[in-house]
Write a structure and sequence with these properties.
By secondary structure, the chain is an alpha+beta fold. The chain is about 45% helix and about 20% strand. It has two domains: about 80 residues, no CATH class; about 100 residues, Ribbon (Umud Fragment, subunit A), CATH 2.10.109.10. The chain has a seven-stranded antiparallel beta sheet. A hairpin with a 3-residue loop joins strand 4 and strand 5. It starts with a helix and ends with a helix.
């Protein structure tokens, strides 16, 4: 039973560290960004609550079928929409006609290349909701310590303890002797 609890503890700690790496470190390293899908306009490809992974893109590289993130011309500059490109307009300036997969009609505005923020590479359903919930708690110092720093320190400390045990011949011999004694006791009572 003790081994099962230890394994579960390790699995939870590893998942927390991996989640931190995926959501914080990887986007910073690869100049990508993450966005949470709040609208159903791209369902089922990008359901509400999904976490969209967006990478910077040269607008000249965008082709029909790509999902792009952009600032709509008639909205505030901090609003970002992700829709599929259905037509590329090459003229004096490069522009795109987009449409949400769940929408019947194309978007009203033609999207100038200057308004394109990124290309959506992939998305993880429901991970956006998880990020929102975890993000509420990790924004402060206490949340960061409880949800990120402490699990990381515990995981590293546990790994170091295991390595110390594996590398110490005296500790291995003592454990083998203890197991041998336990087996002998069991044999006597059976």
């Amino acid at each position: 039973m003790r081994y099962l609890i230890n394994w579960l503890k390790y699995i939870v700690l590893i998942l927390l560290v991996l989640l931190t790496v995926v959501l914080v470190v990887l986007p910073a390293v690869f100049t990508s960004s993450l966005a949470i899908v709040y609208s159903g306009s791209m369902a089922p490809e990008m359901p509400v609550g999904a976490l969209a992974w967006m990478e910077p893109v040269d607008p000249a590289q965008i082709k029909v079928g790509d999902i792009i993130a952009f600032n709509p011309p008639r909205m505030e500059p901090d609003v970002i929409v992700s829709h599929r490109v259905i037509e590329v307009i090459k003229g004096e300036t490069l522009a795109f006609i987009t449409k949400g997969d769940a929408n019947e009609d194309p978007d009203w505005d033609v999207i100038p290349a200057d308004n394109v923020v990124a290309r959506v590479s992939f998305n993880l359903p429901d991970m956006g909701y998880l990020l929102l919930r975890v993000g509420k708690y990790t924004k402060g110092r206490i949340g960061f310590v409880l949800f990120i720093a402490v699990p990381t320190v515990l995981l590293i400390g546990s790994a170091m303890r295991d390595m110390n045990f594996m590398l110490s011949p005296a500790k291995r011999r003592a454990r083998q002797r203890k197991k041998m004694m336990e087996r002998r006791k069991k044999r006597r009572f059976h």
